[in-house]
Amino acid sequence: MTPLNPFFLQGSSSEQRLVQDLINEQLRMYGQDVVYMPRNIIAEKTIIKEAILSKFDDSFRIEAYLSNFNGFGGQGDILSKFGVRSTDEITLIISKERYTDFITPFIASQKEIKLSSRPQEGDLIYFPLDNSLFEVKYVEGKSPFYQLNNLYVYELRCELFEYEDEIIDTSINEVDENIKDFGHIVTLQMITDKVSAATATINLSENQIASPFGKSVKKIDLILDGTGYIDTPTVAITTASPSGINATAVAIMTSKYGQQGKSIERILITNPGIGYTQIPEVRIISSSGSGAIATAILGDKVLGPIGIVTSGFGYVSSPTAVISPTSSTGDNALIESFINSSGSVTSASYVNAGSGYTSGLSIIFQNPIGVSTGSYLYNEVVRGLTSGTTAYVKDWNGPSRILKVAIIDGNFIPGETIVGVATTANGSGASYKLISVNKDNLYDLYAENIQIEAEADEIIDFSQSNPFGEF
Length: 471
Known about the structure:
- The chain is mostly beta strands.
- It has three domains: 13-178, no CATH class; 186-190 and 371-438; 199-365, no CATH class.
- Helix content is 10%, strand content 38%.
- The chain has helices spanning 13-30, 96-102, 104-107, 173-178, 449-459, and strands at 32-37, 40-44, 51-56, 60-66, 77-80, 83-86, 89-95, 124-127, 132-140, 153-160, 167-168, 186-190, 199-204, 216-227, 234-237, 248-254, 263-271, 282-285, 290-299, 303-310, 321-324, 334-339, 345-352, 361-365, 372-373, 381-384, 390-397, 402-406, 417-420, 431-438.
- The strands form eight sheets. The protein has a six-stranded antiparallel beta barrel with strand order 1-4-7-10-9-8. The protein has a six-stranded antiparallel β-barrel with strand order 12-28-27-26-29-30. A four-stranded antiparallel sheet has the order 20-13-24-21, with no helix packed on it.
- The longest helix is centred in the N-terminal third of the chain and has 18 residues, at 13-30.
């Protein structure tokens, strides 16, 4: 026999139903429309079950009552050692019945969602009134405490969402646009449709003076590459005759495994000069490394300095120079070109300036090879065909060919083709060749690490020792 008086109910099902209906109606009348996004855990650490990659691709509109009546809670905007942080907090109340009926059935079968029967800490809520995303930090399911022996609402205590490496794709424009520039974004400049070849003109080296005589430096052989060079050494060539033109050259450096500093990989001629009657001395001048030895080789009817006429656009690697006409009585010239991050030829020098040429000539650099097809889709996976690196698309600007990506698992290589992974459900199959990679976050107003470090170095002297102590 129950000790309670059977003639006084502690809440009948009809009374509980009435309370729930009244609560639902009040939430619709006085609440706000919010977008609820359950967290899909894609990858987590096996020991402490920490989510290391999450995805939010389900979204549900639901009414919620905002308990805050005097502004956001929390400490507001604060300056921390990790930058400027906003600690705004809100408390939202949603109907337990509405969640159970309109959200749970759609996510119950998804194994990536750890808990579907109630709101879960870590889920996100988009709050349109403030155009902000909040993360659920705590779910209180027993307040008010058992009215008529039942629970009717969830109280969600939320903090302003701090983006890490989450994938958010709700298909609701106002939500997706809100987080498009969240997180660390790498900017990839892809090749454009308007590619053009670079061109240059060359006269004979002897045309640099009115009365040519003597020979020119057509090649410099590197005998020993030296070691320990910190800066690029100067290549000094003995002067030509008083009425001649001195030859000039530059060293191209390389690093070797297990070796301190750098060595000289090759020496390129920037001006073969004219007026040499004997082989000039080549000296490698440096305040750091030593040991490099080179010798000059002279020739007649050698080509002169290279003048870039048009820089071209769209190169992802240094193009080969097509020289026309070729030498008829000597050896053909061999040219090495250099490009900038925009894919244009900035300069060209001689590996061999050739010999036996009878007139000046023109150079056409190999045409840029571009791949331009399709449009990358928001949040699809892209992959570099050479590096194998993958990332998620944040934004794609077709006219400028700028691709913003995040959650990168490696390093993209300029020159490789970046493709949209068409094997997935939302793959675009887009394919473009990469010109340059900018890893600086251009879209975070507070990402000023380099400037902050430079200013700090002006205040604290780290050159002698660490003023904060040595570890």
